[in-house]
Amino acid sequence: MTGTQLSPPAQDRQLVWPASENGVLRAPIVEPDERAARRTLRTQIARLERDLSDAFVTAFGMGGLDQPEPVAGEPRLLDLGELELVRDRLAERLHAARAQIAERADEQEDKRLQLERMLLDPGAYRNTRIPCRELGDPGCGVWQVKPRLGLIGMLMGWWQVKLSSGCPLPGGRARSAARSASKFSKAGPRGSHLAAAARFIP
Question: Could you tell me the pLDDT band of residue 181, with boundaries at 50, 70 and 90?
Fold first, then answer.
């Protein structure tokens, strides 16, 4: 896996001298030290968790990463095989996270290039919309190619790129319609008709 090199757990070795037979001493048997192996695995797991945390922070502005499914279990001491399984799963998640970040970075770069072309030639991208979140920018704004002066600009071919806030109003459209109706009701008899129409805005 690129960027993260995992090595097998180091194991201190202890020499165990078996009992001799007929006065002949056998060759020593080498037994691994489990504590050293655990220490190496825990170090690798801690490094992978740090790298994975950095990946989550990097991807936050890109829409975040997929969350792993929760695993139910009771606290207990994992053996070497289970520690190796935890390490390998973290390595797989880190590899997938980095691949997803790279893919989204390429998509954002393509959107930025498209926005630059829109600004240079708005008429070639009529009614094209690019949300700011697709550019990696915060907020709910939208870049959109719209005609100048409404219908007249559309007929004359006068197009421009505008950035709208795109953020929903507090309370939604119903509250906005009620506020408009209240404003029109203060405008006299003619305003009362407009207020009635505003209440029926879908």
Answer: very low
Condensed to tens digits (0 to 9), the pLDDT of residues 189-201 reads 544 444 444 343 3
Domain that holds residue 8: 1-15+28-65+79-120
- Classify residue 176 as exposed, middle or buried by CB count within 10 Å of its CB (0-12, 13-18, 19+): middle
CA of 62: how far to CAs of 51, 147, 179, 202, in Å?
A: 17, 31, 36, 33
What pLDDT was estimated at residue 50? 94
pLDDT value of residue 158: 86
Tell me what the mean pLDDT of segment 113-142 comes to: 88
Query: What pLDDT is stored for residue 94 in this prediction?
Result: 92
In whole angstroms, give the CA distance from residue 110 to residue 145: 17
First to last CA, the chain: 54
Six token digits for residue 24: 């002949």
Give domain status of residue 129, yes or no.
Answer: yes
Residues 184 and 88 grouped into a single domain: no
